[in-house]
């Protein structure tokens, strides 16, 4: 099969906000998490130094703040924030509910792959 589909509501919730989707989707090289953040919720500050994963946080609804190191990055619906592996990051939710899609991937080493790896050619469709 060339695709897999899963609804985050069908995946067991981890902590009080997150649904890890990578395993149910059968992902091999990318981490995908859906996070529905209740009012006043804060994630644990963390980094990805050990696994060298970069992350992108995409806010799909609501408003929130992403703390990157000691900097506050206000985000609103549609905003995406790239975060380096060594940066400490934390989601801080305000008074309303917000929802994020969190995407992570390991360090990409172009010397270990073909010349056309990660060659983006545009959107077809």
UniProtKB/TrEMBL annotation:
Alphabetized GO MF terms: metal ion binding
Keyword Transmembrane: no
Listed Pfam families: Cupin_2
Start and end residues of each Cupin type-2 domain: 38-96
Keyword Aminoacyl-tRNA synthetase: no
Domain of life, per lineage: Archaea
Keywords associated with the record: Metal-binding
InterPro entries xrefs: Cupin_2, GPI/OXD, RmlC-like_jellyroll, RmlC_Cupin_sf
Annotated PANTHER family: OXALATE-BINDING PROTEIN, SLL1358 PROTEIN
Name under which the protein is recorded: Cupin
Organism of origin: Halorubrum kocurii JCM 14978
């Amino acid at each position: 099969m060339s695709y897999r589909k899963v609804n985050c509501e069908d995946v067991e919730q981890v902590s009080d906000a997150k649904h890890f989707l990578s395993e149910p989707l059968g992902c091999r090289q990318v981490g995908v998490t859906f996070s529905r953040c209740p009012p006043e919720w804060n994630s644990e500050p963390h980094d990805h130094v050990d696994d060298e994963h970069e992350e992108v946080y995409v806010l799909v609804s609501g408003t929130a703040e992403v703390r990157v190191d000691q900097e506050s990055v206000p985000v609103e619906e549609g905003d995406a924030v790239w975060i380096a592996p060594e940066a400490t990051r934390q989601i801080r939710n305000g008074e309303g509910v917000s929802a994020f899609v969190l995407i992570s991937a390991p360090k990409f080493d172009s010397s270990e792959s073909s010349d056309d790896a990660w060659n983006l050619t545009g959107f077809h469709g």
